[in-house]
Design a protein that fits this description.
Length: 717
């Protein structure tokens, strides 16, 4: 009878879950023993991850995104300035766990682990409150005889997670941080972890009870300078009155309702739709404007050799979907980190260039200290390893800053962007020389990211980034009259920059250096994407684009997840939606983990978010001053729509496609300006409300002038 009731309970649970699937629930059918098989929550600073620890215990990892060591050695940032794992709450069950599944309700921003034993089980529910830095953990029994359980705190050692990998050479001098201290005061546990460099962090766990529910409130305090971290965590916990917890949860849900209202996407492919929805949830969970910038892990940590920020692809891909998704609040966390560390970016270049230049190497802590050692007089530098020879990283990061400005048209953003972009391009200008053909080339060897021994002249990585940087500076300066003293220099270099190195197989890695072995990074193809300098509208380049992508993908030994998101975006630029979705499905089927996280040895958050951007690009693209509506919808997607996607010039666009044809497009202007649209609608009707007009209407596109607050409806006849 007991077993019958347990099975009946399980059937009821499954029916309820199935009935709610359309309400925004993502299922992890089998909780596993890694973070990639767990259920997670976050508020941009704190986060939780629930999964199985052993045959009779569950762990709820807790993380805080800014808990980094902060020792002074910039040369060993992956150890001395590493992101630190904090620890977990362990729920020890009195009976053997027979089954465990999980749900992430991304609409309500909460997670549920369902733990079944012989005669009953436990629901372990977690929320990371959106408006308070507190994790809510609720444990409830179910079944005839719910198992007893014990809850305890298990800290992690305060060492760089990179120390756990035998293939990594640790620094010769790495003294340990002081031992942590566990304190108890009635129903409160406090674990204090001081740091050798000063300050530290503290985790506070408070036990509460509300009816039959056992509740734990968790918070983490952190400071680099004092013992304030414990006071901070205690203050956070005390800000929540358990008697008012229902109101706190309602406030949490209200925040998330507002977050989701910013934009939406509907596609008929259920797997891609759910994946996209989960990335939207992940963005809101992992970072916000007033929170730390997103590193490789977000709030969900694990053993990893990558406990830092990576600047030659990862941080750019991480933030790539935030702009179109109308989540500038999330993107603001990156902008704030850049603005806060401008002086360090200047000090990353050799002393003689600091008066007008800035750069960043491959990886760093949140202080963005990562020297680049390239000097014109030193063609081959032995300092800094490969990461200290990557010239273009900062300029590429500023591509995200540029999007932040152009998608918001916030004049307060302009000055910082323009000043720092000038500095990053100036570093290039210091290193240029005219070659024998009268063309500018990079006169020192630089490193093309991720390709073996690619320390060569004129990498396509650098040439593509430099071209974009010059074009962006010219465009920005033209917005304010084109009066900058360097404007003529930018024009001269852009018009006389050497061509991209290429051969019979397509684009090469660099001068006299072909692409000859498998390469996960598309650093040699960035003129195609994300910069569109070589694009599908250029009929003369179509064969070169096709050949280059095909040859890159043909060498598949070392391709990784973002190799397929990158290929999908390139196919989308070509208008090849079927190929783009095929590439996305390889990514989802082969590389994405059960809960949509991603790993390369350790957690790396950028690839799923880059794939989110690739999905957006099936529906809307902007390049060469033109917005393209539904440019790469696959044949199988008859009905597709999106709402309030943001684009260059601060225009919000919504569109609907039915039975394979675009039926209507609406535009809302947040800033006065001109918008050129490829609508895909033959001879559409245009209705403008507010101050605006149709400048030009052709078979190819519509050009609109809209003042701030004006709207336009573009309809099929």
């Amino acid at each position: 009878m007991k077993r019958y009731l347990l099975v009946l309970t399980f059937i009821i649970i499954c029916f309820t879950v199935s009935a709610q699937s359309s309400a925004g629930i993502f299922h992890v059918k089998k909780l596993g023993k890694t973070i990639y098989e767990g259920v997670f929550t976050g508020n941009g600073l704190l986060g939780s991850m629930t999964y199985i620890k052993s045959g009779n215990s569950v762990r709820v990892d807790v993380g805080r995104t800014d808990v980094y060591d902060h020792r002074t050695n910039n040369e060993s940032a992956l150890f001395d300035k590493a992101r630190l794992n904090i620890g977990h709450v362990e729920v020890i069950v009195s009976d053997t766990i027979l089954d465990a599944s999980g749900e992430i309700n991304y609409k309500k921003a909460e997670a549920l682990a369902i733990i079944s034993t012989k005669n009953g089980g436990l629901y372990i529910r977690t929320l990371t409150l959106a408006h308070r830095d507190v994790i809510y953990l609720e444990i409830t029994g179910f079944g005839n005889s719910a198992p007893a359980y014990q809850v305890k705190w298990e800290p992690e050692k305060a060492i760089s997670p990179r120390m756990n990998f035998s293939h990594v050479q640790p620094p010769k001098n790495y003294p340990p941080n002081p031992a942590g201290i566990l304190k108890k005061d009635k129903d409160i546990q406090i674990y204090e972890q001081p740091l050798l460099a000063g300050g530290g962090y503290a985790t506070v766990l408070k036990k509460e009870k509300k009816g039959e529910k056992q509740i734990y409130l968790v918070s983490i305090g952190y400071s680099t300078q004092s013992g304030y971290y414990t006071k901070e965590a205690l203050h956070n916990i005390r800000s929540v009155n358990i008697k008012d917890i229902d109101a706190e949860i309602q406030a949490h849900r209200k925040w998330w309702n507002n977050y989701y209202s910013a934009s939406g996407l509907s596609v008929p492919d259920e797997n891609i739709q759910q994946f996209y929805n989960m990335q939207m949830y992940k963005l809101g969970s992992a970072s916000r404007k007033d929170k730390p910038a997103l590193d490789l892990q977000g709030p969900w940590t694990a053993s990893t050799p990558w406990p830092a920020y990576w600047h030659n692809l990862n941080i750019q891909l991480t933030y790539s979907p935030a702009f179109t998704a109308n989540r500038l609040d999330v993107a603001g966390s990156l902008i704030q980190m850049i603005d806060r560390n401008t002086e360090n970016l200047v000090n990353n270049v050799p002393q003689k260039y600091r008066y007008n230049s800035a750069a960043i190497g491959r990886s760093s802590g949140p202080d963005m200290k990562s020297p680049v050692y390239l000097e014109k007089e030193i063609i081959e530098s032995g300092r800094g390893g490969d990461g200290g020879k990557e010239l273009g990283n900062l300029t590429w990061i500023l591509h995200s800053y540029y999007q932040y400005y152009r998608f918001s048209m916030d004049s307060k953003v302009y000055d910082n962007l323009f000043s720092l972009l000038k500095r990053s391009v100036n570093y290039y200008l210091h290193l240029l020389e005219l070659n024998g053909e009268g063309k500018y080339h990079i006169a020192v060897k630089t490193y093309s990211p991720e390709y073996p021994k690619a320390y060569v002249f004129d990498t396509n990585y650098d040439l593509a980034i430099l071209r974009w940087g010059l074009k962006a500076l010219i465009s920005l300066d033209n917005e304010r009259g084109g009066t900058d003293p360097l404007h003529a220099r930018w024009d001269e270099v852009l018009n006389n920059l050497r061509d991209y190195p290429k051969n019979e197989d397509g684009f090469m890695i660099g001068k006299d250096f072909p692409y000859a072995e498998s390469h996960r990074h598309y650093s040699h193809l960035m003129m195609i994407y994300p910069f569109y300098d070589v694009n599908w509208d250029q009929q003369e380049n179509r064969e070169l684009i096709t050949r280059s992508i095909a040859y890159w993908q043909s060498k598949n030994k070392y391709l990784q997840g973002y190799s397929f998101s990158g290929a999908a975006s390139m196919y989308a630029m070509m208008g090849k939606g079927n190929e783009a979705v095929r590439s996305l499905n390889i990514l989802l089927d082969k590389y994405i983990k059960p809960n949509t996280l991603y790993a390369e040895t350790g957690p790396v958050i950028e690839t799923p978010l880059a794939a989110m951007s690739s999905i957006q690009e099936l529906c809307i693209q902007y390049w060469d001053s033109m917005v393209r509506i539904f440019p790469a919808v696959p044949d199988a997607w008859g009905n597709v729509s999106f709402r309030d996607f943001l684009t260059d010039g601060a225009f919000l666009i919504s569109a609907e496609r039915q039975e394979g044809k675009t039926r209507k497009i609406s535009v809302k202007s947040r800033h006065t300006g001109i918008l050129k649209l490829k609508t895909g609608i033959p001879d559409p009707r245009v209705a403008i409300k507010g101050n605006g007009k149709v400048i030009q209407q052709t078979e190819e596109y519509i050009e609109l002038y809209l003042e701030e607050g004006a709207t336009a409806a573009i309809l099929a006849e």
